[in-house]
Amino acid sequence: MIAFDLGAMAYMWSPAGFQAPITWLLVAYFAAQAVLWGTNRMRDFDEHTILGGAVSVTPEGSLTASVAEPLICFKDLRVSMAAMTIGMAYMFAATQLVLS
Amino acid sequence: MVATFKRCAKRMLVSVVGLLATALQLAGVAAAEGSSGMSMGAGSSTSSSMPSMAHMGPKAAAHAGGMHSMSMGGISMSVPSHTTNILPDWLAVIWTLVFFAIIASHTRHVLQSEGQRRWWHSGHVAMAIGMAFMFAPASIDHFNIPTGFWSLAFANGAIAIVLWMLVQTFAGRTCCGW
Q1: CB pair distance less than 8 Å for A5 and B116
Q2: pTM to 2 decimals?
Q3: Where are chain A's structural domains?
Q4: Which of A70, A77, A30 is nearest to B125 (CA)?
Q5: Is the model more confident about A38 or about A51?
Q6: Which of B22, B55, B57, B67 is the most exposed place for a label (fewest CB within 10 A)?
């Protein structure tokens, strides 16, 4: 998820390549993330990670899923991450409105 | 069968990484072309039609007759007044201050955590720094960092994380699920 967020940041810093549908999808994505952070639902995501944990391939060649250590470890992350994702959604919307 | 699945999974992951790298590289090239085609630095300005305005974002805007004066990342220019701007200067300053607070908060988390958590928080610090510069009006942003730098830095960060996740996956180690 953070790789995707960093990719979105790269996109944000290259407004020459802005495509309205992509930009509005990113607005929706970050708005949804803001809601999840604000309502503390992101912690559920963190504790019940995708596919029950990280997927890995063992040396024998079998696919296993193991539980990863939760990343959300501070209570104030809820506020700071909600603010950051709202800010990102707002910047995408503002840029797209100016470009259109 | 397991070997076939493993081969398919590897090919799929390599394809995903390739697509991501290509997309990010294109974004970087677009940003580099954009920054080479406009004047840089706070206080620099140019009148432009809409196509060349596509290099810009709405960090700040102020009415100047029939035009908006806009800036982003230390670049400023004039654009037609019929565009919609929802980010006035005062709001941009408030957002910049909010991101300063987020930087401070997450830097504290970086110092207090270890391992994957530390890297996870570091990513958020980098994003918050980028957003602070993105929102900061040209009048208070004296660094004049080229937009291409930010684009490439975040693209490389994203690629590095994906590669790290691939390495962890194929080494049979647990990495973050999201």
Answers
A1: no
A2: 0.68
A3: 1-12+23-39+76-100
A4: A77
A5: A38
A6: B22
Chain A residues 48-67 within an 8 A CB cutoff of chain B: 49-51, 53-64, 66-67
Determine the Cα–Cα distance for residues B8 and B24; give it in Å rounded to an integer. 24
Instruction: Tell if the CB–CB gap between B178 and A45 is shorter than 8 Å.
Output: yes
Sign of the dihedral defined by the CA atoms of residues B60, B64, B66, B67, in that order:
negative
CA distance A80 to A70: 18
| Cα-Cα-Cα-Cα dihedral sign, residues B2, B7, B13, B19 | negative
Contact between B57 and B27 (Cβ < 8 Å): no
Of B58, B61, B98, the CB nearest to A83: B98
Tell me the pLDDT tens digit for each residue of A81-95. 999 999 999 999 999
Please state, in angstroms and rounded to a whole number, the distance separating the CA atoms of residues B163 and B154.
Answer: 14
Q: 3-state SS string over chain B?
A: CHHHHHHHHHHHHHHHHHHHHHHHHHHHHHHHHHHHCCCCCCCCCCECCHHHHCCCCCCEEEEECCEEEEEECCEEEEEECCCCCCCCHHHHHHHHHHHHHHHHHHHHHHHHCCHHHHHHHHHHHHHHHHHHHHHCCCCCCCCCCCHHHHHHHHHHHHHHHHHHHHHHHHCCCCCCCC
State ipTM: 0.78
- Angle A3-B132-B143 (CA atoms, 0-180°, nearest 5)? 110
Mean pLDDT is lowest, of A8-22, A83-97, B15-29, B54-68, for B54-68
* Interface contact flag, B106 A80, Cβ < 8 Å: yes
Nearest by CB to A62, from B2, B134, B174: name it: B2
Contact B176 A73 (CB under 8 A): no
